Amino acid sequence: MRNYTSTETAQGNILGYSKDWLTRNKAIFTATEISEQPALWRDSFKKLLELQNEVAHFLNRIYSKPDLNIILTGAGTSAYIGETLAGYYKKYTLKPARAISTTDLVTSPEDYFHKETPTLLISFARSGNSPESTGAIDMADQVCDEIYHLIITCNESGNLAKREKKENCFCLVLPPESNDKSLAMTGSYTSMLLTGMSIARVNELKRLHLQVELISSIARHILSEYASKMKEVASMDFNRAIFLGSGPLLGVAREAHLKVQELSDGKVVGKYDSFLGLRHGPKAVINNNSLIVYHFSNNSYSRKYERDLVKEIAERNDGMFRIGIGKNFSEKSYVDLSIDLPGAEALEETMLAVCSIIPAQILAFYKSIELGLSPDTPSVNGNISRVVKGVTIYPYFNTITSA
Description:
Blueprint: H1 7-10, E1 13-14, E2 17-18, H2 19-24, H3 28-35, H4 37-50, H5 52-63, E3 69-73, H6 77-93, E4 97-99, H7 102-105, E5 119-125, H8 131-143, E6 147-153, E7 169-173, H9 187-199, H10 209-225, H11 227-234, E8 240-245, H12 249-263, E9 269-273, E10 290-295, H13 300-316, E11 321-326, E12 337-340, H14 349-356, H15 358-370
Helix pairs in contact: 4-9, 4-10, 6-9, 6-12, 9-14, 10-14, 11-15, 12-15
């Protein structure tokens, strides 16, 4: 049985609402999926441990290829996982690794696939039914002479999970609880992020176990200590939300901006950037109706650049409200709300990314309710859906022998 994240949840309340209220207001799935992530991470890591030998056997022979190219892919939120992990894969596999969305791969395959270069395509997908997900794999098969597929998905009944089993393909299906029922990806995003990161070090998983326990503890702390504060922030009349991050946390910032946009049905426009990147023009989006959220790095070098920008924004009094997320940051005097992550200084930078998204998920949930929307199905006009619709994958005839 799933271990609840807090006494409040065990007693029948989730994020401050009764289950009956959440069900009536079509918010039960989103609230539950946000709150149960700490337990889901443990379950996902446990499943990977059980399959460690199989995954390692599949990958080790691929990693032995001297000219291997790694592409991490997905669509939307699933693509942002690759953005967070690309540097991690470079570091631990010593292979070139890039994050390229399936939406780019299917429209311009010759720009990314090289016919004569062995390629490992790592695909992240919640449902596994997105047309681009299957399309990217099919095009990789068509263009590359030597292609390998690692599929990480949350849906055992999806098209990706049910693909024909071949020697060049390994599919890892995460626990069923990871397959979010709500429109916005929450537990699916973090569980695939954690799994993808762990697989980069598949030969040393036991060394990561304490890190998984720590992020679960941090997430429970955020849920119990800061949910009510994020509800207060959500009640503020901001219509722009700007999220900043460095290194792997830039991918988290991008996911955070999407969560707020999705769950507010576009009423809050999100923006994301790096701390340095914001200076080069995008800072123009900040106005008096802007919420600014800083995802602080564990990297002392990166923090020097982060601190400079945070101080400057505070001195200019830019934005409506400023939030800082991190551990032991001296910038607390420059933010209006400090979300402390106890023990986070012991986390690897990429592992920190897994739990750093929780505040934005909570904020987006409360903002959706504040705007009179249903978090499970926030898109009033049906502009967005749980699985993208209306995409036709056209036959690709490759006439280019090398990219």
